[in-house]
Design a protein that fits this description.
The complex is a heterodimer of chains A (about 450) and B (about 270). By secondary structure, chain A is an alpha/beta fold. Chain A has 15 helices and 19 strands. With about 270 residues, chain B is mainly alpha-helical. The relative contact order of chain B is 0.20. The chains are: A alpha/beta (about 450), B mainly alpha (about 270).
Chain lengths: ~450, ~270
């Protein structure tokens, strides 16, 4: 007897409420067990496609759907998401917005309660899910105290406890450090090998590259002919390399014997570090190691507990991890214009929008954009107007390779014009492409990994 | 500890605190409640904020009553009668009545405090009757969003400051308030999406932690309400007397049964262990 595919889409079309065009147009797609990697540029329809698999599209988001979508034998058109939840697990991009209960153990049990798993069976399933995701030691911890990586694993545990036949993950690695990403990849490999259909949309293909599996490339809402892993590696081609490094000029910022940390608790101590004009410094290190704390201290948003922070006069641009902290004006163009409102008129803002591939989105509401597009809009909003110091916290989060390449070009241009740039990132490719110096931040200290090169 | 037993204890404490104006009984409820809080509060929970709030509330009660009520024979200061409301004699009686009122407020608040400082919010939600379980989960989830909203407000303020936002007029505050509200709404929608994806609302729910009644829980649930009922009964029949400093300043009357009822409220600290 032939086992029906976990997912079967036939002539599927979907248009969001008020949308001018179809967000999805899938002719024929069948997905069985094992791993499926969904790739494509920001806004290509990956998230919409993933949401079809558990019925969030169309039941949660509304809109018009046509054609047929069968998931585990259920017709998505007529089966509510909460019913599909017994078969399809979904891990969202932002782990902060997936926790329901304040403690780890209770949060993992939330889904089991919803699908009425007998109370006697719950403790075993909760324990197994915590064990598989490597967070059994966090069982009694408050969710609010977890790092981003731990929260992502908690979200995964909450879904695994429900023992889904299909597991869908929307950029599960975007906030994880390398170790965290590897451990999640290992979990996905094990699941895919044990008969679960694992469908992952992820820009960090280099880390998922260890997985053997099928790759679906998306473009303009369509599933392009399945591509091979080799083709996927082409998508992940190296970014624009840095221009030849020249010895930087004067000091733009300096930390001398700084101890700093949130809530007046030192996370980093004895930090002596400086950045110069026309220089890119990359801060690397594990989740929770203090990269963001260091950036906030340089920015002046966090007062050091001891030591001295010096910044040369000039505008300091700061990109927070959450781009939506920046974007609240009616259009992307208005957002950029607000940053440079006091500057003499120039074509810089328009050039930056074009450079980041946002020219066609300039008059769109930032909140209507995909996560990668939002990230680029936020970068345009902070980098406009040639800041003296630019501090970027995980700037490639949610970005496809094309957008990362555009970001690299923008950073090269800023560096050439004299800006001092500091980037906190987990993205190895970005570091290789743009960093003049690399500083490892973790275990309470900051340590220079690569000495300053001299041309 | 069983959340329902603790809720019964809290209700009993509030009842005793408010059933009599006698400061002696109120002070005993305060002491028993502090005892329970110190012995059973969650790790890393600080009582400092609560203590400061209660001291401020007590001072306000004493100040307002002293300034507004000019009754009593023992004046310690006379303000010019021309001053509206507060003009006239300030009396010891009024100050003591204010202190007794402040003590009543403190006793009631401290009796209710363990519901938030001893229990986790979800324990309280779990303790709701089955018919209210889904509503309770939604309320608990909404409460869980509050810290995130506070964090995003800080993040947005910092991001705007770095772009030169320096609010000087009230009309510039929407630059902060609007994104905070929009971000909170967007976060709520994402959370709702995540809850739906985890099967919320799919039908009958089961519970991870069914309420277990142990001997200590039963003891608390029996002793505290019994003490409250006895206290109210004795108060009604006049065995436990109320206290007013007017018209004559007097020492509050103390009754052994009343004291015993109040001390029975210390039961949780004796039988429960964290």
């Amino acid at each position: 007897m032939t086992v029906p595919p976990a997912v079967s889409l036939t002539r599927l079309t979907y248009r969001y409420p008020g949308g001018q065009a179809d967000a999805l147009d899938v002719r024929d797609l069948r997905i069985g067990d094992g791993l499926i990697l969904v790739t494509g540029d920001s806004g290509s329809g990956k998230s919409s496609l993933l949401r079809v698999f558990n019925g969030l599209v169309p039941h949660f988001h509304g809109g018009t759907i046509g054609g047929s979508a069968l998931v585990c034998g259920h017709d998505v058109n007529t089966t509510a998401t909460r019913v599909l939840a017994t078969e399809v697990g979904f891990v969202f991009q932002d782990p902060e917005l997936q926790s329901v209960y304040p403690t780890v153990e209770r949060d993992v049990a939330f889904g089991l309660e919803n699908i009425a798993v007998p109370p006697s069976a719950m403790p075993g399933r909760v324990a197994e899910a915590l064990e598989r995701t490597g967070i059994a030691h966090l069982r009694d911890r408050a969710v609010a105290t977890l790092s981003g990586g731990e929260r992502q694993r908690l979200a995964l545990a909450g879904v695994l406890a429900m023992q889904p036949r299909v597991l869908v993950l929307d950029e599960p690695l975007s906030q994880l450090d390398e170790d965290g990403a590897r451990s999640v990849v290992a979990i996905l490999e094990a699941l895919a090998g044990s008969g679960t259909a694992v469908i992952v949309a992820e820009h960090r293909l280099d880390q998922l590259g260890v997985l053997g599996g099928r790759v679906l490339a998306m473009h303009g809402g369509r599933v392009v002919d399945p591509v091979s892993r080799a083709a996927a590696r082409i998508i992940e081609a190296p970014m624009t390399p840095a221009a030849p490094y020249t010895a930087p000029s004067s000091v733009a910022w300096q930390l001398s014997g700084v101890a700093t940390g949130p809530a007046r608790t030192p996370l980093l101590e004895g930090i002596c570090l400086e950045g110069r004009d026309s220089e890119v410094v990359a801060l690397v290190g594990p989740n929770g190691g203090g990269k963001t704390t260091l950036l906030r201290t340089i920015a002046g948003l966090l007062v050091p507990l001891s030591g001295r922070v010096h910044r040369e006069p000039g505008r300091v641009a700061f990109l927070p991890q959450n781009p939506m902290a920046l974007l609240h004006r009616a259009t992307v163009a208005a957002e950029v214009a607000w940053t440079v409102r006091g500057d003499p008129p120039s074509g810089d803002a328009a050039m930056l929008l074009a450079e980041l591939g946002l020219a066609h989105l300039a008059h769109r509401d930032p909140r209507d954009l995909s996560s990668g597009e939002r990230q680029r809009a936020a970068i345009a909003a902070v980098l406009a107007g040639q800041p003296r110091i630019a501090l970027l916290d995980e700037p490639t989060r949610g970005m496809d390779t094309t957008a990362r390449d555009a970001l690299c070009r923008a950073i090269h241009r800023l560096r050439s014009a004299g800006s001092s740039i500091v980037i906190a990132t987990h993205d190895r490719n970005l570091v290789a492409a743009i960093a003049d110096r690399t500083v490892a931040v973790g275990a309470g200290a900051a340590r220079e990994l690569v000495p300053v090169a001299v041309a | 500890m069983n959340p329902r037993a603790l809720a019964a204890w809290s209700l009993s404490g509030i009842t005793v605190a408010l059933a009599s104006g006698n400061p002696v009984y109120r002070a005993l409820v305060v002491l028993c409640s502090i005892n329970v809080l110190v012995a059973l509060r969650r790790p890393n929970v600080s009582l400092r904020g609560l203590a400061i709030a209660l001291v401020i509330a007590g001072l306000i009660a004493v100040t307002v009553t002293t300034l507004a009520s000019h009754t009593g024979d023992h004046a310690f200061l006379v303000l010019p009668a021309a001053i509206p409301v507060v003009g006239g004699a300030l009396t010891v009686e009024a100050a003591l009545f204010g202190a007794s009122s402040g003590l009543g407020i403190a006793a009631a608040v401290l009796a209710a405090a363990p519901l938030s400082l001893v229990l986790l919010p979800n324990s309280l939600v779990d303790a709701l009757p089955r018919a209210l379980a889904r509503t309770g989960a939604a309320i608990g989830t909404a409460l869980n969003l509050i810290p995130g909203i506070a964090r995003s407000a800080t993040e947005i303020r910092d991001a705007q400051r770095m772009r030169g936002w320096r609010p000087r007029r009230v009309r510039e505050w929407p630059d902060l308030a609007v994104p905070v509200v929009l971000t909170a709404l967007e976060g709520s929608i994402t959370l709702a999406e995540a809850m739906e994806a985890r099967g919320y609302g799919s039908g009958a729910r089961t519970h991870y932690s069914d309420m277990v009644w142990r001997g200590a829980d039963i003891a608390v649930c029996a002793v505290a309400p019994a003490a409250a009922v006895a206290f109210v009964g004795l108060r009604i029949v006049g065995v436990i007397a109320d206290w007013y400093p007017f018209p004559d300043l007097s020492v509050p009357p103390i009754n052994t049964f009343g004291v015993a009822c109040c001390l029975a409220l210390a039961t949780p600290a004796l039988v429960w262990r964290r």
